[in-house]
Amino acid sequence: MEVLSEIAKACGFDACGVVPVDVLSRERERLERWIRQGFHAGMNYMANNIEKRENPALLVEGARSV
Protein backbone atom coordinates (compact mmCIF):
# COMPACT_ATOMS: atom_id res chain seq x y z
CA MET A 1 0.00 0.00 0.00
CA GLU A 2 2.85 2.38 0.78
CA VAL A 3 4.31 2.00 -2.73
CA LEU A 4 0.88 2.60 -4.25
CA SER A 5 0.45 5.77 -2.16
CA GLU A 6 3.84 7.06 -3.29
CA ILE A 7 3.00 6.45 -6.95
CA ALA A 8 -0.38 8.16 -6.54
CA LYS A 9 1.23 11.22 -4.94
CA ALA A 10 3.82 11.37 -7.72
CA CYS A 11 0.92 11.39 -10.20
CA GLY A 12 -0.70 14.34 -8.41
CA PHE A 13 -3.30 12.58 -6.26
CA ASP A 14 -3.94 14.08 -2.83
CA ALA A 15 -5.23 10.81 -1.38
CA CYS A 16 -5.28 7.14 -2.23
CA GLY A 17 -7.01 4.20 -0.59
CA VAL A 18 -7.71 0.51 -1.05
CA VAL A 19 -10.72 -1.44 0.21
CA PRO A 20 -11.66 -5.12 0.03
CA VAL A 21 -14.16 -6.03 -2.70
CA ASP A 22 -16.69 -7.27 -0.11
CA VAL A 23 -17.14 -3.71 1.16
CA LEU A 24 -18.71 -2.78 -2.18
CA SER A 25 -21.60 -5.23 -1.74
CA ARG A 26 -22.77 -3.24 1.25
CA GLU A 27 -22.78 -0.07 -0.84
CA ARG A 28 -25.04 -1.27 -3.67
CA GLU A 29 -28.29 -0.08 -2.05
CA ARG A 30 -26.69 3.29 -1.35
CA LEU A 31 -25.55 3.62 -4.98
CA GLU A 32 -28.98 2.67 -6.31
CA ARG A 33 -30.66 5.23 -4.03
CA TRP A 34 -28.13 7.90 -5.11
CA ILE A 35 -28.96 7.19 -8.76
CA ARG A 36 -32.76 7.17 -8.13
CA GLN A 37 -32.43 10.59 -6.48
CA GLY A 38 -30.67 11.91 -9.58
CA PHE A 39 -27.40 12.76 -7.86
CA HIS A 40 -25.44 11.27 -10.77
CA ALA A 41 -26.47 14.36 -12.82
CA GLY A 42 -25.22 13.92 -16.40
CA MET A 43 -23.14 10.87 -15.52
CA ASN A 44 -25.71 8.41 -16.90
CA TYR A 45 -23.06 5.70 -17.18
CA MET A 46 -23.18 5.42 -13.37
CA ALA A 47 -26.54 3.64 -13.73
CA ASN A 48 -25.02 1.02 -16.04
CA ASN A 49 -23.46 -2.26 -14.94
CA ILE A 50 -24.28 -1.85 -11.27
CA GLU A 51 -23.49 -5.53 -10.72
CA LYS A 52 -19.90 -4.87 -11.88
CA ARG A 53 -19.61 -1.87 -9.58
CA GLU A 54 -20.78 -4.07 -6.71
CA ASN A 55 -18.48 -6.97 -7.62
CA PRO A 56 -15.31 -5.92 -9.49
CA ALA A 57 -14.39 -9.63 -9.81
CA LEU A 58 -16.99 -9.69 -12.62
CA LEU A 59 -14.86 -7.13 -14.44
CA VAL A 60 -11.41 -8.32 -13.37
CA GLU A 61 -11.30 -12.03 -12.56
CA GLY A 62 -9.93 -12.69 -9.09
CA ALA A 63 -10.17 -9.06 -7.92
CA ARG A 64 -9.87 -8.90 -4.14
CA SER A 65 -9.55 -5.16 -3.59
CA VAL A 66 -10.08 -1.83 -5.34
TrEMBL record:
**Keyword Metal-binding included in the entry's annotation:** yes
This protein's source sits in the domain of life called: Bacteria
Q: Does the keyword Transmembrane helix apply?
A: no
Q: Which InterPro entries match?
A: QueG
- Tell me the keywords, alphabetical order: 4Fe-4S, Iron, Iron-sulfur, Metal-binding
GO MF annotation terms? 4 iron, 4 sulfur cluster binding; epoxyqueuosine reductase activity
Could you state one GO biological process linked to this protein?
Answer: tRNA queuosine(34) biosynthetic process
Per its record, how is this protein called by name? Answer: tRNA epoxyqueuosine(34) reductase QueG
Lineage, top ranks:
Bacteria, Pseudomonadati, Bacteroidota, Bacteroidia, Bacteroidales
